[in-house]
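Key idea: predict the complex, not the pieces.
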Amino acid sequence: MAGQQTLDIEFRGVSKRYGDVTAVHPTDFAVPKGAFIALLGPSGCGKTTCLRMIGGFEQPSTGQVLIGGTDMAEVPPHRRPVNMVFQHYALFPHFDVSANVAYGLRQIRPRLTSSEIGRRTADALAMVQLAGFGARKVHELSGGQQQRVALARALVNRPSVLLLDEPLAALDKKLRTDMQIELQNLQRELGITFVLVTHDQEEALSMSDVVCVMNGGRIVQLGAPDEIYDRPADRFVAAFVGKTNFLDGTVLESTDGAARIRLANGMEISARQSGAVAAGAAAAVSLRPEALRLGAPAGETGLSGIIRNRIFLGSTAEYAIEVPLLGTLLATADHNAAQSDLLKPGDRVTISFNPGAPLAFPASDNKTSQRETSHVEVVS
Amino acid sequence: MSGAARKRLVTALLLAPAAVWLFLFLVLPFVAIVVFSLGERAPAGGYQPALTLAQYANLPARATAFWNTLLLAPAGALACLLIAYPVAYYLALKVLPQRRLLLVALIVIPFWTSLLIRTYAWMYILGGRGIPAWLEMIGLPELRLINTPGAVLLGIVYGYLPLMILPIYISLERLDRRLLEASADLGATPFSTFFGVTLRLSLPGMMTGFSLVLILLLGEYLIPTLLGGGKVFFIGNALVDLFLQSRNWPFGSAIAVALVAIAVALLLAANRITARLSGARQVDLL
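Result:
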């Protein structure tokens, strides 16, 4: 664990209950200074509650939230060194763009001079490429522009941590991709910690240095995006982050880090495993669609099936392949103009994959729900 | 019949009852009043055709009624506003949602009894056998409450408070709570958040309530009659006097037209102020 000074946010045994409902189970985690961390999970997983506890809009039922090493228990939102980009932006409808951005500056005591406020407001607007938009009314702006105003408003006070609550959810896909890049650039330039809440796994993977996957009020896995994707901690993470196929099977042999598994169709494969599968138990083997290679039928060996559907996505195509006894598998293949008519619904194909691709989980994965506390740390 | 023509016909049919109603009971009477106001009093009372502005020139004769109305109606509306705002704020932002309905009902329930009866009750409370008598019993000097401007103001606030609370409550209830959080997040104290965001965004509700109460008060007759006696009289009382007692219809009509003009002017001003202060959208009261 890193030293106290380099941690921006720390949760110590933080939990949140609303009456009988537990939104966040006791959680410990730490965010180092300057990190871009994404809290990722389905709705109701507790990610927004965590963000709101950092912002001071919710009080933890137990535990401590520390910002920059200071316990925030008695500190109201307006005295915390963090700022938030709200979902749907929460811009003030009765102010123009400049007044929205300047709002935080006007709260500073002793008061800033109006020329100082004007200069810093203009700088903040320029930073989000909205120079010259100061006199516009908020409702005259497009969704993307409102998003930028919200960003400028939250950054103008130079917070040590920026909280982003589903900031891109309301934008269309093209704009969202642009804003993802822009947010990443901003974070690198400013060097301040970004905490992003999202239910969009693509957004979490592409933008952040660290992804914190949450489910049912607990942290399920915390790690670098590629780690989360390639070595998901459990079946939930494997299914939630990216697309995957689960093949049913029985564990024949389990050794440290690897397992022999007989699939439901009788085929035997070896799979990586994170330690939870025991010999004789039922297992689910995860195989990512892009790990599957499709080929012309060749004898009786290996996996084979019939293409039932093809979804053309431009650079890639997704195939739904019906495999006897294993169900329908999803495979992604790069689009190749010369071969585009090679595979079509009704065709028989063989499916192969690299030996390292399969990853085995216990079939009924209760690991997450049985664990009472989740303890994960980021090492910077 | 084409679709567009059909649509227009349906719209016209739907609007017709309201249009006929407004024409018969608003436009026609108002035209009649304007015509009357330019005429003369017939020797036996009533109206006699003429074309003169003499009635308007005579308006200062009823200056007291105008002063009372123009002082006590806005003062009453303002008092209602000041009392209603904290109540509406509490109802909209502080009370537990499951208790809210009950409290709103408690505010509305007095409306189920006639204002006349409720004002009579005040007449008793403020009158000789009411509060002054109780105060005398504990040895305090004699106090006059009934038939004073204060009594009229009290009656006004009592009678019109719910009408002020409801629109303010609605505008505060609709207020996006995230705006308050955003304000706090940006470093505003609860005090600054209230004046910078909450109050500003509830202005349309305040203005609706204020205008509603003000318009009704400008024509108020009952409360000044019962609680003001003959001493604190409004334009409404002057109109009753002129039309029913002295049968000076033209002069009464001139006063009525002046009252409408004042009401319109006040509303336009209120509308303009709200639009300027709340910035974003134009608020339509007229």
